[in-house]
Amino acid sequence: MPFNFKKGGYFKNLNSIYDDKSTYVVPVKHWASVEENAMIIEQYIKQHLSERSFHIVAHSKGGVDTFFWFQSSQFKSNVLSFVAMASPFKGTKLANFLLAPLRFFPGVSSVKKSLNCLSLHQIEKYTIGEELPQSACIISRIKSLKGIYPLLYISYLFLKIFEGDNDGVVSVNSSKKGKFLGEFYCDHPGLIGHFNSEKRETIFKSCAEKIKQYQQEIEKC
Question: Rounded to whole angstroms, what are the CA distances from 216 to 36, 149, 209, 213?
Fold first, then answer.
């Protein structure tokens, strides 16, 4: 199912970088567990890409979902490269902090399930194992509170105390895995151009260009 850029979506700004006919977006769920999303990834690839080689680009928890999926996938040999954008491979204390009050709200079980996977006491279950081919990472870091998404003010300051430099959701240290491709001064959603502004779109395009260049270098080898 080719991704339709005109309809928007999570990676809605990729149309300026990639040909939409050759780009696929796996419909993982924001608040699903890592195990559930790994099954969605496997089924999607089986249905659409089982006989093709492909590059993988993932943002945030999607990087953790992808790493865990790879450990038991039957399509390991299809993967050419893997680039994770601000993915919490060492977890995030923000998840632990949010889980505490959520235990009093039984109606948000899916949110708790997803956050639990990224908590400091659970993350190693999903991020230790065989590395994907040509793994690389891109890091986002808040340099100034000016221009960041307002809801991330508190989480940025919280993580700054406990984990150091961060993008309001994931620390710089937690994002590191594989080859370092670059760092951008923006908040977590800004790395993929969310919450429209000219500056955010420029950051995302620069980030996507780095990824595309990396993929092209791999294909030449």
Answer: 31, 33, 10, 5
Q: Please calculate the CA angle 136-85-99 and round it to the nearest 5 degrees.
A: 125
Q: How far is CA 214 from CA 24, 69, 121, 135, 210, in A?
A: 18, 22, 33, 11, 6
CATH code for 5-220? Answer: 3.40.50.1820
pLDDT in tens, 18-74: 665 678 888 888 889 999 999 999 999 999 999 999 999 999 999 999 999 999 999
Question: Residue 59 — left, alpha, or beta (φ > 0 → left; ψ -120 to 50 → alpha)?
Answer: beta
- What pLDDT, in 10s, does the model give residues 137-159? 999 999 988 888 888 999 999 99
CA-based max dimension of the chain: 54
Sequence-distant (≥ 6) Cβ neighbours of residue 121 within 8 angstroms: 96
pTM as predicted? 0.91
Contacts of residue 102, defined as CB under 8 A and 6 or more positions apart, other chains included, come to 108, 111, 112, 115
Q: Which residues pair with 185 in a beta bridge?
A: 141
The answer for residues whose C-beta is within 8 angstroms of residue 150's C-beta and 6 or more apart is none
* Domain residue extents for the chain: 5-220
Query: What dihedral angle (degrees, nearest 10) is formed by the CA atoms of 20, 23, 27, 32?
Result: -130
